[in-house]
Amino acid sequence: MNPWVVQILIMVVMSAISMALRPRPEKPKPQERDVPISEDGDALPDLFGTVWIDDQYLLAWRNMGTVAIKSKGGKK
User: What predicted TM-score, i.e. pTM, was given to this entire model?
Assistant: First the structure.
């Protein structure tokens, strides 16, 4: 056997082993986020115009859910 054929076989075997041993990532869960929320009594700044702030806050959050994509064409 030629030396390059042996190297190709070793490469294929090593690729198969690395694919079998790689870690499987977890599938993301929809609509689960860690968001900054303003608490009762927190002082929120009055912002006018375009400004840059260092503190993050969120005044409202709701679960939007999912909406099915309709593939029906034509007039509604």
Answer: 0.36
